[in-house]
Design a protein that fits this description.
Layout: E1 2-6, H1 14-18, E2 35-41, E3 52-63, E4 71-82, E5 88-89, E6 99-102, E7 107-114, E8 122-125, E9 146-152, E10 158-164, H2 170-175, E11 180-184, E12 197-205, H3 219-224, E13 230-233, E14 240-245, E15 247-254, E16 261-265, E17 271-276, E18 279-287, E19 290-292, E20 297-303, E21 312-317, E22 325-326, E23 350-361, E24 389-396, E25 399-402, E26 417-419, E27 422-430, H4 438-442, E28 443-444, E29 447-451, E30 457-462, H5 468-472, E31 486-489, E32 494-501, E33 506-512, H6 515-519, E34 523-529
The structure holds CU-O-CU linkage and copper (II) ion (CU) (2 copies).
Residues 400, 445, 447, 512, 514, 517, 522 line the site of one copper (II) ion.
Length: 530
C-alpha cells in the first residue's frame, strides 16, 4: 500500500547538526505535516516473490571501538527473513552495517525501519533500480516508520554500497555509522574467493577524549567537508592484519565523507586494479597509485605469495595536491581554516592498513589478462554528441552549486530532463561556467561527482585547466576505463561521460559525494521522461 507523504519542515541549522556530536542524547525534532505527495512504500507487496527478504533497522547503539568508554553510534541492525545465511554478514564490534551479498537477477526485499531521532532513507549506491526504490530524499521516513524496498538486481556483479540519503543530513548520518557494502556476486573461478575476497571500507573519523565521535558544527568546516585525524577500516580502529601467502581481491570502498585517497603499496609495487564502481573491467590496469574519492570503489588484486614470511606491506595514502583553494591566500594548508581545522588535510600522506605475511600459504592465482566482458555504450548514437549538456560545479553566493543552483526537493530544470531510451553525453566542469565572481574563483575544491540510477563511461578527461603542479601529483591515479557511478572532478577539470537512460522514468538525484557539499545543496534532480 502506498500512502501520501507528509512534508516535514526540516530543521537543519548548524546548531541542530552540532547536537549530533552526542548521538545518544539527540532529541526528536518537531515536524509540521502537509501534503508533499511523495509515495512512500510502507507495506510489502504480496505479489512480489523475493529471493531475499531482510529487515534493516537504523538505530542508535554503543560499540567498543577503543579501550575504555564505548562509542555512541548510529548503525544498521539486520535480520534475515529469507535468503540463506551467507546473504548478510555482520561485522563484529563496528558501527558499520552488514555486508549484503546478492546475485544478478535476484529479487530483493528490504524492510527499512528507523529508530533515529531524525528522518532517514536508504540509498542503494550504484544500483540501477526504479526511482521509487532508489532512496531519493523525498522518501525519507520518520522514527517508527517503515519503508519497503522491492527490486530486482539488474547490475553486473560488482561492489556497491548503501547509506542514508535524507536532505541536508546525509553527512552526519553516514558519519555516525550508517553505511554498508552491497556486493553483487559473479562466477569468476579465476579470481580469489571466500576469505581471499576482502572488503576494505575506508573512513576517517575524529574522536574526543571520551571516545565519542566529533562532527564539525561550523560553516567553514562544513564548506570544506569533514576530514578526520584517524582512519577506520571496516569500521574498526585496528589497522593490522595477517595475510597468507596467497592472492587476494580487495574491494575498496571510500566511505569517507570528504577524504580523497591516493592508494599505493609501501614497497612501491604496482597497484593492480581489476574492477571499478560497476564491476570488473575488461582487463587489469596497472598503476603506481590510484586516486579514490568519496563514494568510489575500486577492486585490486594483490599476490602476497611473492613476499617473505613476516614481511609487512602497507596500503598507504600518498601525499598529493588537490588544487583546493579556500580564498585568502591560495592553497589550503593544515590549520588554515581555524576552528576545528583538520589535523590531517586532504593530500597528507598516511598509512591505511598493514598486511603482515604469515608462513601459511593459500591459493596463489595468476592474473587473468582478460577479466570480463563489460559491454559498452555506442557514443556515436548519443542524441547530443555534438553538444553535450554542461554541468558546472562551482562556488557562488557563498554556496556550492551546480549550474548556479542548489537542491530543491522536486525541482527539475529543463536542462535536467532526459528522454527514456536515449544515450547522452554530459560534461562536468569544475569551476567553469560564466558569471563567477571573484569569490567563486577563490573557492575551488575537488568534487566527487555521482549520478544515481545508472553506471556510465568516462569518455574524456580534459585536464588542461588543472593547476600544473597539482596535476603532477595525481596524474597517474585515474582509471577512466570500466563502468563508474562516481568520479573525481578536480578544480579546472572537465570530464565527459556517456550514459544510457533505460528502463525507468522518474526523478533521480545527482550530486557531489563530498557529503557536506551534498548536504549544503550541491545536489540536483534529473528526470527521465517518456
Ligand atoms: Cu552514495 Cu547519492 O549517493
Ligand atoms: Cu548513489
Ligand atoms: Cu563538492
Amino acid at each position: 500500500m502506498n500512502i501520501s507523504r507528509r512534508k516535514f519542515i526540516r530543521v537543519a541549522s548548524l546548531s541542530t547538526l552540532g547536537a549530533l556530536s552526542v548521538p545518544l542524547i539527540i532529541k526528536g525534532f518537531d515536524s509540521i505535516a502537509d501534503a508533499e505527495g511523495a509515495r512512500i512504500n510502507t507495506e510489502i507487496n504480496e505479489n512480489f516473490q523475493p529471493d531475499i527478504d531482510l529487515e534493516l533497522t537504523a538505530l542508535q547503539k554503543e560499540v567498543q571501538l577503543f579501550d575504555g568508554q564505548k562509542t555512541g553510534v548510529f548503525s544498521y541492525g539486520s535480520r534475515i527473513l529469507k535468503g540463506g545465511d551467507r546473504t548478510v554478514e555482520e561485522l563484529e564490534d563496528t558501527y558499520l552495517g552488514p555486508i549484503i551479498r546478492v546475485k544478478p537477477g535476484q529479487k530483493v526485499r528490504v524492510r527499512f525501519k528507523s529508530q533515529l531521532p531524525r528522518e532517514s532513507i536508504i540509498h542503494w549506491h550504484g544500483l540501477h533500480i526504479s526511482p521509487e526504490m532508489d532512496g531519493h530524499p523525498m522518501y525519507a521516513i520518520e522514527r517508527g516508520e517503515q519503508f519497503v524496498y522491492e527490486f530486482t538486481v539488474n547490475n553486473r556483479p560488482g561492489t556497491y554500497w548503501f547509506h542514508p540519503h535524507p536532505d541536508k543530513i546525509t553527512g552526519p548520518q553516514v558519519y555516525y555509522g550508517l553505511a554498508g557494502m552491497f556486493i553483487v556476486e559473479g562466477e569468476y573461478p579465476d579470481l580469489p574467493t571466500g576469505k581471499y575476497d576482502m572488503p576494505l571500507i575506508l573512513q576517517d573519523r575524529q574522536f574526543d577524549s571520551d571516545n565519542q565521535l566529533v562532527y564539525p558544527d561550523n560553516r567553514m568546516d562544513r564548506m570544506r567537508g569533514f576530514l578526520g585525524d584517524r582512519m577506520l577500516v571496516n569500521g574498526r580502529p585496528e589497522w593490522h592484519t595477517r595475510v597468507k601467502k596467497a592472492t587476494y581481491r580487495f574491494r575498496i570502498l571510500n566511505g569517507s565523507n570528504s577524504r580523497i585517497y591516493k592508494l599505493a603499496w609501501s614497497d612501491g609495487s604496482e597497484v593492480v586494479a581489476i574492477g571499478t564502481d560497476g564491476g570488473l573491467m575488461e582487463r587489469p590496469v596497472r598503476k603506481p597509485y590510484l586516486m579514490l574519492s568519496p563514494g568510489e570503489r575500486v577492486e585490486i588484486w594483490k599476490d602476497f605469495s611473492v613476499y617473505d614470511t613476516d614481511e609487512e606491506v602497507l596500503l598507504k595514502s600518498l601525499s598529493f595536491e588537490s588544487g583546493t583553494s579556500m580564498g585568502m591566500g591560495g592553497r589550503m594548508g593544515g590549520g588554515m581554516m581555524g576552528g576545528g581545522a583538520p589535523q590531517v588535510p586532504n593530500g597528507r600522506e598516511f598509512d591505511l592498513y598493514s598486511f603482515t605475511v604469515s608462513a601459511q600459504s593459500g591459493p596463489s592465482k595468476s592474473l587473468p589478462s582478460r577479466l570480463s566482458d563489460p559491454g559498452s555504450i555506442d557514443v556515436s548514437r548519443a542524441v547530443n554528441a555534438d553538444r553535450p549538456r554542461q554541468f558546472s560545479f562551482s562556488f557562488e553566493r557563498m554556496q556550492w552549486v551546480i549550474n548556479g543552483e542548489t537542491f530543491g526537493m522536486k525541482e527539475v530544470a529543463d536542462w535536467e530532463k532526459v528522454r527514456l531510451n536515449t544515450t547522452e553525453i554530459w560534461e562536468f566542469i569544475n569551476g567553469g561556467g560564466g558569471g563567477m565572481g571573484m569569490m567563486g574563483n577563490m573557492m575551488q575544491m575537488p568534487h566527487p561527482v555521482h549520478m544515481h540510477g545508472l553506471q556510465f563511461l568516462i569518455i574524456q578527461r580534459d585536464v588542461s585547466g588543472v593547476d600544473r603542479s597539482a596535476w603532477q601529483t595525481v596524474k597517474d591515479g585515474f582509471i577512466d576505463e570500466g563502468w563508474q557511478d562516481t568520479f573525481l572532478l578536480l578544480p579546472g577539470m572537465r570530464v565527459q561521460v556517456a550514459m544510457r537512460f533505460e528502463d525507468y522514468t522518474g526523478i533521480y538525484v545527482y550530486h557531489c559525494h563530498n557529503l557536506e557539499h551534498e548536504d549544503m545543496g550541491m545536489m540536483r534532480n534529473y528526470e527521465v521522461i517518456e
